Amino acid sequence: MTETKVKKNKSAIQRRLIPSYIFLIIVSFISVFPLYWMITAATNTSLEVAQGKIWFGTHFLENLNKLTSGYDLWGTMWNSFFYAAVQTILCLFICSLAGFGFELYHDKAKDALFGVLLLAMMVPQVATMIPLFKMISSMHMLNTVVAFILPAISTPFMIMMFRQNSRNFPVDILEAARMDGLSEFAIFFKMYVPVMKSTYAAAAVITFMNAWNSYLWPKVVMNDTRAQTMPMLIANIAGGYTIDYGLLMVGVLFCSIPTMVIFFVLQKQFAEGITGAVK
Amino acid sequence: MNNKSILARQQRAGWAFLTPATILIFVMSFWPMLNAFITSFKKGAAAQMTWATPIFNNYSRMLSDKIFIKSVGNTFFYLIIQVPVMLILAILLAQLLNNKDLKFRGLFRTMVFLPCATSLVSYALIFKSLFATQGLINQILQNIGITSENINFLGTEGTAKMVIIIALLWRWTGYNMVFYLAGLQNIEYSVYEAAKIDGANGWRTFWSITVPLLRPTIIMTFIMSINGTLQLFDESVNLTKGGPANSTMTMSHYIYDNSFGQGVANFGYSSAMAFIVFVMVAVLAYINLKVGDKRD
Prior knowledge:
The complex is a heterodimer. By secondary structure, chain A is mainly alpha-helical.
């Protein structure tokens, strides 16, 4: 093929893709616009927002001051961050340990047990919340980080993700380490954890996001305003009779900043985390 | 040490690794589920519950509870309209973005995926504000002359449901697309080349190659979406407060209101309703798996 022919071919391909481009541009615009609008609204007064202003204003600090004087924004940000961090660390440790055990020490009994654990995926949150609430309140743990994390630190999804990804773990290393006299726990910490770094990263991203975003469970067990999380805070702001949209959108913005940063910095790990258990 | 004791030690270690996770799942999922089932046959306040008389009272009560029936209807309405539209759109987007000739693929993918970066409460409040009576959507519709006065989107039954569906589509289409993109990457590109040589057009390739090869992924996303939709809570609570007149209230929202919201702690009745949600999730997932298997 001559060069002009290739060029012609290429432009023909691109011409056939025009409907695809148009469709993707429309979908992309719809996907991005509400978030763009959220950011601009945070910089405008409530009146300007209601009048349909869609570019940036100069009232961000004013809105932020109103928010921090009426609500404990920084304390709530810290709560959300603290709960999510503790949940992520414990969930990763417990679930990776289980995934390691289920895959690399597997036998019939363990495989059967794994099948049973998967059934927990079918259990809806609204069914478990009443018994768990009673349990945690009888332990006098309401409004503590323990109450927040306890139902979420061992999930079938995470165990499955670590189990599936452990398939690629080189078994020869395991045998060699045993020959060297390493204990099974030392093998986990010294061999398994470093090799599985990318799985840990993906699992961390998805666990942190889930913890940060959770709403129903904290609403049940974190009813003290000093213990509340960001989603609860912004839901409270919006629950009032009259809504100050500028103020509300500053709250929504702060609630979205950590997850958006994670999204942009760790998008690959985020996508891997979502699809992680299904390979 | 002989071989046997080494093996036994290894086995013990294996069990030790999975014990914490297993105990937690039993205590935090299976035990509460069983407990909820037992509670569903009881009545009275949280502290001193007694067996309901007759024993199935909480279950028979559901049949005459108009709000519960309405919430089941609403939830299934979302399920039937939103899930198929979302999944078809997601496959279509994945198919378009899998084309190697397309430019700016990474940028498009990031933008379509972006709504997943917002929390459920955040996006519910963004959509609530956009569709407010004094909101941007009303402004735009008037400026381009489609409507002449503000529409109370969230205060009218039909439009409130529609706003929830639009919001759900916005938040979850990109999420499901990621599954399909991952699935498509497992399909050899040569399969498509072969189809092209055989003269198959875009639609034919889509229906006779993409969809069948993605079938396991489609079944999985279907089950996940059914599960998620049957448990919808954040959107119903924050976007519409279940209104107007309970016309957008979901099952989870109503169960929460009966157990922790609005000053009533009707744990027995709430548990009965929650058990029905569990049965629905399980039955629909089972049907889905069966139907998915048979198409071989």
